[in-house]
Amino acid sequence: xxxxxxxxxxxxIDCRRRVExxxxxxxxxxxxxxxxxxxxxxxxxxxxxGGMWVRALDLVKELNAKGRMAxxxxxxxxTAQAGVAASWRQGEDxxxxxxxxxxxxSDVLILGQENAGDVEAAxxxxxxxxxxxxxxxxxxxxxxxxxxRNAGARVLYCWNQSRESAxxxxxxxxxxxxxxxxxxxxxxxxxxxDPDLRASFEDLAAYCASHGFPQLESEFRDAREAGIGDAILxxxxxxxxxxIVMGAYGHSRTRQWIMGGATRSLLEAMTLPVFxxx
Length: 278
Known about the structure:
The protein is 41% helix and 23% strand. The protein is built from nine helices and twelve strands.
């Protein structure tokens, strides 16, 4: 079971949807829910080192504090009504650093897809990417649009025999035990003639059965014509999936976050929640 779940909170328009999803997920696991408020608004103008600069900074701090208190009150009310044990965390550092620090005490973290039009969120550049690659915990990213009740009933799992994909199915185990259908998707070029691939699937199916997951289905798709991200989303739609489980690929280099092609594609174009593990 997921005993501790964390959810990122901010002043943005998608915050309420994340809380609703987190509560929906916490109840069947009897999990403790931690709300991590991380939103940092910078003053829009810096005049000089005198009074104007100080007053501008103080005004932003005041506005941010008022927004934070409103979010905290709404979070407390929602968790109390749902009967979910909850706690609140916040920080003054940059949003990604704050979320990463507090999320490491939870089993899974819930974020929202980057929404360029949601300026009130104020999370900074590459927020989702930084958290994915630094938290050390699996992350569920919700699309900016849609309602996702009972996510995890029909799960599409992306399997390529890598370290990240192996980690992903283990991290998602508490969800997969409650799923009704599970399909492993492998992408490649041409037909799946590799005997090692067939043997790998047999071992994967045995692993799933031993952990009480639904009987594993398999699918191979040729990824030459469509991009990897498009192929995954197409397979998810055909399967009627309500959750994708996959490894997150990427690394940081001199403050630049280099994401793998499939991870980047899903983060940009996701249409359903994605459970990422890095």
